[in-house]
User: What shape does this take?
Amino acid sequence: MEVGVEYFIAVSAILFGIGLFGIFTRRSPLILLLSVEIMLNSCNLALIAFARHAGQTAGQTFALVVMAVAASEVVIGLGLAVAMARRRANLDVDTLRSLRN
Amino acid sequence: MQTLAWTCLFAPPAGVVVLTLAGSRISRSSAAWLGTAFAFASFLAAAAEFVQVLGRGAGDRAFTYTLYTWASSPSFKVPLAVLVDPLAVTEMLVVAGVGALIVMYSVGYMHGDPKERRFFVYLDLFLFSMLLLVMAANFVLLLAGWGLVGLSSYLLIGFWHEQRAPVEAAKKAFVMNAIGDVGIAVAIFFMVRDLGSTDFSVVFHTASQHWAKGSTDANVVALGLLVGAVAKSAQIPLHTWLPDAMEGPTPVSALIHAATMVTAGVYLVARTHVLFENAPDIQSLVALLGVATLLMAGVIALVQTDIKRIIAYSTMSQIGYMFTAVGVGAYAAGMFHLLTHAFFKALLFLGAGIVIHALDNEQDVRRMGGLGSALPRTRTMMWIGTIALIGFWPLSKDGILAAALHKGGATAIIVWAGGLIGAFFTGIYATRLMRLVFYGERSEFARQHLHADHGEAPWTMFWPVAALAVGAVASGLLSIGFGVHNTFGEWLASAAPTIEPSTPQDLLTTAVAWAAGGSGALLIWRAYDNPALLAALKRPWGAMATVAEQKFYWDALYDRIGYAPAAATASALYRFVERWVIWGAAAAVAATVRALSRGASAAQTGAVRGYAATLVAGAAVLAVFFIGKASL
Assistant: This one.
């Protein structure tokens, strides 16, 4: 039985919502990174679903690019989180305002 | 012969290249001697060329050598060509000969100066420029040389550029000479427009066909050349740079500001005399400017206290005599005075240089005195120069005045009378210099600074002075007058004719000139022995002395009409245009940008969630927009 594209999109939208919710409610940079990952992967899911629906490979290719970008982003993000943890005790993105003024 | 001419011209620039490329790889004294060697090479070539030209028949002594076409346009072209004729050869000998001696003198004078190498590069550059000026076969090349001597003069006046005064003097000289360059350029424009050529041969032969005698065009051309000559030769009204130029090293004063460059104006008028004869009013103006300058400079020299400035004003005065000569049409007489003056004035400057050198660079004659016993040989040499300057021998000045007397007419008689009065002043200031420096009681300053172990001067400094003294005496033999002979005049006749005075006129003029010069000399000599006489002499001249000390207010005048309005305009522009318009515009732009940036920076809160919310909101707006668009 063929699963319809609308189901994939629904799952993708739900995942994206979860990620967004995480970003808005959590303060720890680690959780924020996880949320961003969830959002990126929800996008990947949507891309692949559409690609299969349309019978083309472009969406899948793009999903691979997104994964590569996501991997890089996690490296930098975790690096920042570690550096931050070394410099100050608490990890709270709301207190990260020293660049302003 | 062609090779000799080019060797003479290009030996000094070869020196420039070699010394520049060698740089600090060779020692300072080797650089100095190399520079001297190139100057002497140039002189030897000039002397050989002279012998060759002398060997030709009297009517066959002018040659034009062309290297290549330097600049060309459809209507006219400028070849890189030199003209070798008696006038040019005379100047080549003076420039390269006196030049080489002075370069050699500099070996001793500049010894130990940290910029010794550069000095010799500049000297060789000057020699090249001056040779180009006198050898050029067309006006464009002449102007190139004219500009280059101005440049080398600028570089050498400002040689000690760590000090303020030399730099200002250099700028002054450059600006005044630039005025003269413009004058010559204007004359060249007329030649190109009307004659289609700037070659001497073409210009001199066709000028009178295109420009009627005394017409506006003829006058403008002659006036343009005169402006150039006046600026370069420090005649009224463009003379104020010369005394200031004494800030340069003494060999420079001797070479550029006495022997060669400043007399280039006389050479120019003699060379282009056809154009001046085509504009008689302007030629009279040459003579009158000469008289005015020789009298004024003679008076100013009476009250100067700086040894070099006394000689500088004397130079101005003597060039005034040369101008009167070419102004009345006695070109060869003017060139003869140029020749003898080159020797005796370089001699006086270099002698003064020995004095200055011996006294730790002191130039004030009031702090000298009684130096005769310490510098006996220098004193002898300077007496030879002084006797020549007063006009006892050589008889070059008398030759000019006698020619003027022979010429007749109002201008020439003014020249004659003015020249004789000038001879009286010359006698006074020349003797005063000798008296103050070498005689009387040795001053306190001299006692402290004169070192017995120092010796009189290194041989490189003394022998050029001696050679110049020999030249000063011997050059007088070239033209004696009184109907005896005028070898020099005959030699130059094809290029620069002269006026031959009758023997009685010559005798009368010489007698009066000797009497005037001699009485001036005697008067001042007596006055310094007798303070009462000195005071009595000074009293009636009090007001005049003030005027003379203020140099006849020329500098003040130029300050008023040139510097002050320019400075006032600049300060007004600064206060209103610069402050309000330019700074205002810049400030307004900056303020606008700052206000906009402040608005934009308000968005940078630093809160990550704020950014995320903005992103999401933006995405939502785009989504609504595109979905709405798609569903339409």
Remarks:
- Residues 299 and 548 of chain B are 6 Å apart (CA to CA).
- The two ends of chain B are 99 Å apart (CA to CA).
- The interface with chain A takes residues 604-609, 612-613, 616 of chain B (CB under 8 Å).
- Chain B has a mean pLDDT of 90.
